[in-house]
Amino acid sequence: MKQRYLLLLVFAVLLFSSKAPAENIRTLRTMEQQKPSNPYYSRTDTAKLNLPDAVWKKVLSPEVYAVARQKGTEPAFTGKYWDYTGKGTYYCAACGNALFRSDAKFASTCGWPSFFEEVRKGSVTYIPDRSYGMVRTEALCGRCGAHLGHLFDDGPPPTGKRFCMNSVVLDFVPDRHGSKTGQ
Ligand code: FE
Questions:
Q1: CA 175 / ligand 1 centre spacing (Å)
Q2: What's the pLDDT tens digit per position in 129-171?
Q3: pTM, two decimal places
Q4: In CATH, which superfamily holds the domain spanning 33-174?
Q5: Which residues are CB-contacts of 19 (< 8 A; sequence separation ≥ 6)?
């Protein structure tokens, strides 16, 4: 009888001690899917955001704001992802929306991170851009409307598209073991 109680006690201790790390991992994952300085950033919430630039100016870094909200362009061959080949998912640095998988990234000679397709329909939206005497297609985040870069028709198969993006508005999250979404 005594042995049975001892066994139960060991089992209970094991049960409670194994629960704590799981809780910690869950909390850590939730924390890394958000940004303390930006309450609108979420890698799980897909609800559209329609916020004035004044709000974005408060929550984004000056570098991200200059591209995302003021349509700036980082100099070629200077961004952190233009020749990066890690396996994972690229998210919008302004709002956390999933944009591209590393499987769709290709080695481009243009000096900006380039992809041949978005991660899902609607993750990127498009508008005509006639600035600087050119006719181009501007690519925007489908959730928050951040300027990401431009879309061209000179990409590789299977789509023939080239999403020419600015590294500064992308957040790369490596795949976890056995996960394809990085979450
Ligand atoms: Fe966004």
A1: 20
A2: 998 899 999 999 999 999 999 999 999 999 999 999 999 999 9
A3: 0.80
A4: Peptide methionine sulfoxide reductase. (2.170.150.20)
A5: none
Res 182 pLDDT > 50: no
Q: State the distance from the centre of ligand 1 to the C-alpha of 48, rounded, in angstroms.
A: 9
Question: Which are the catalytic amino acids?
Answer: 164
DSSP collapsed to 3 states, the chain: CHHHHHHHHHHHHHHHHHHHHHHHHHHHHHHHCCECCECCCCCCCCCCCCCCHHHHHHHCCHHHHHHHCCCCCCCCCCCCCCCCCCCEEEEECCCCCEEEEHHHEECCCCCCCEECCCCCCCCEEEEEECHHHCCEEEEEECCCCCEEEEEECCCCCCCCCEEEECHHHEEEEECCCCCCCCC
Centroid of ligand 1 to alpha carbon of 144 (angstroms)? 4
pLDDT tens digits, one per residue of 24-83: 545 455 555 778 899 999 999 999 999 999 999 999 999 999 999 999 999 999 999 999
Confidence of residue 89 (pLDDT cuts 50, 70, 90): very high
Sequence spans of domains, the chain: 33-174
